[in-house]
Write a structure and sequence with these properties.
By secondary structure, this protein is mostly beta strands. It starts with 8 loop residues before the first helix and ends with a strand. The strands form 3 sheets. The protein has a 5-stranded antiparallel sheet, with helices on both faces. Helix 1 packs antiparallel against helix 3. It contains 4 helices and 13 strands. The chain folds into 2 domains: 157 residues, Hotdog Thioesterase (Thiol Ester Dehydrase, Chain A, Roll); 116 residues, OB fold (Dihydrolipoamide Acetyltransferase, E2P), CATH 2.40.50.
Length: 295
């Protein structure tokens, strides 16, 4: 596998051949056995009144029994996970499922615990699509009850580079209500909207004071000092021009309002609520964006 700056079509297809030759990955065992409560929930949601349920499971539920939940973990030899890593490194960071074909060998009964294995069946591309240039990745999954294959699925996704939309600007939108803010950042000032009538501060800016309903806003210049009120660490998907992970922090400023921005030059493991920060102005094309740094 090669690094992000070196991955091209030849390397992508070579990686695909290597993964395909490795064959079936190790089985992933479902968290729960086939069970009546889940069958009842499924059939109720779909309005399926077949009298055979819940003594047997609807065939289309087969994927449910091996799902990984909110925090799934892929095995080291999982082919779709490793192929996604290769395509992410090459800049194909967006994904959309395109189609699947399932085959059921028999009905499943409550109490059976399934496992699933998969292998990389095909990688085709690059293809030009309405979404952008991409690769179609197909995996073949097999579900097992013990040593018996009970179902199969061909699953296809498109990993693509989003096509730029003509006429759509990536920088933030500037309106009559926000122009003062962006004029301030251009001059390294962090401006907060202030009601001229009652003095209330507000961010993000708006046309009407939420306290007194006045329509004559002005602004005050913030000290740029504050504390982390909340934050998220972004791991995936990849963002063009950014190295993951990175931190987006909601900062409570000394003036009392809260403002979002990237927290720069800090180990995500060291970020905590209450961390003192100051504003840093970062040029980005025609705009200057407010970000944060620890102080």
């Amino acid at each position: 596998m090669t690094g992000p700056k070196q991955v091209g079509r030849r390397e992508i297809l070579a990686a695909a051949r290597e993964l395909a030759e490795q064959g079936e990955c190790s089985p992933r065992v479902g968290r729960d056995p086939v069970n009546e409560p889940m069958i009842n929930n499924w059939t109720e949601a779909l309005g399926d009144r077949n009298s055979a349920y819940p003594a047997v499971a609807p065939p289309a539920m087969i994927q449910v029994w091996t799902m990984g939940g909110l925090h799934p973990e892929r095995s080291d030899d999982d082919p779709i996970g490793r192929m996604i890593e290769v395509l992410d490194a090459a800049g194909y960071t967006s994904v959309v499922a395109t189609n699947s074909e399932q085959t059921y060998h028999r009905l499943l009964k409550p109490g059976e615990r399934l496992s699933v294995t998969s292998h990389l069946a095909d990688v085709a591309g690059p293809k030009q699509t309405a979404l952008g240039e991409g690769y179609f990745v197909t995996t073949h999954n097999t579900w097992w009850s013990g040593d018996e294959a009970v179902g199969e699925m061909d699953w296809r996704i498109l990993k693509f580079k989003p096509r730029p939309k003509p006429g759509v600007s990536v920088p933030p939108m500037v309106s009559r209500d926000t122009a003062f803010f962006w004029e301030g950042t251009r001059g390294n000032e962090l401006r907060i909207q202030q009601c001229a009538a009652c003095g209330a501060l507000r961010h993000p800016p708006g046309p009407m004071c939420p306290r007194c309903n006045a329509l004559d806003p002005t602004y005050t210049v913030s000290s740029g000092l504050g504390e982390v009120y909340s934050y998220v660490v972004h791991h995936h998907p990849q963002v063009p021009g950014k190295r993951t992970p990175f931190v987006i922090a909601l900062v409570e400023l000394e003036e009392g309002v809260r403002m979002l921005g990237e927290l720069l030059d800090v180990d995500p493991e060291q970020v905590k609520v209450g961390l003192p920060v100051r504003v840093r102005f970062v040029p980005s094309g025609e705009f200057t964006l407010p970000a944060w740094e620890a102080r």
